[in-house]
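USER: Fancy drafting a protein?

ASSISTANT:
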Amino acid sequence: MKLKDFKKKMVKKVFTATEAHILGFTESPAIINLQLHQWKKSGDLIGLKRGLYMFSDYRPQKAAIAKELYSPCYFSLEYVLSLYGIIPEAVFAYTLVTPKTTRHFKTSEGVFSYRKIKREAFVGFDQETLMAEKEKALVDYFYMNSAKLQPNDVFWEESRLEAKATEINFKRVFMYAKLFSSKKLNILLTSFYNYAKSH
C-alpha cells in the first residue's frame, strides 16, 4: 500500500487504526497495522496515543486532537483562564473537562489533561472550538480546586485572580454554579465576587 493512495482514501486527518482497517483495503488488519507502524517510523504519521494517528504534514486545530483523544470534552480550567488573563500563571498543558473518567495524554502536540466533571455541568462551551466561556471555566476551576481555595480577602489578594474580574459576568457565573449543587462552591464564588467588586 502506498502512502499517497492511503491519504486519498483516508479523508480524516486524525484517525484510528480501526478506521484504517475498514477503508476497504484487501490487506489484513495485521498488514495494515504493520504499514501504519512503518509510516510512523518514517515520520509520515504521528502517533497521538495507542491506535490513534495523524498525518505528519497536517497541522490540526487543537480541538480536533482533543476530541479524537478523549471525547466528549471541552477546554476549560487553567488553560482557558490563562488565555483570558484571569490567572497570571503560564499554563503548559491543555486542560479539559469530560463527563468520563479523568485521563492524561502526552502527545507530540502537547499534554492533554482531562478532568472528570458531573454530566449535568457539561455545558457552557463552543461546540466547534470546544472552548469554555470564561465564566464556565472559572466555575469549573473553583469546583475542581475547592479544597485548596479559601474564601477570604487575603487568599484572593495573593492569588491575583481578580485582575480581570471586571470582564467576568458574575450573573452567568452563579447560573453555572447552580449546576454543581455545591454549598462550598457558592461560598467560594460569593467571597471572590465580593472581593473582586471591592477592588
Remarks:
- Residues 63-198 form one domain.
- The mean pLDDT is 91.
- The first helix runs from residue 3 to 9.
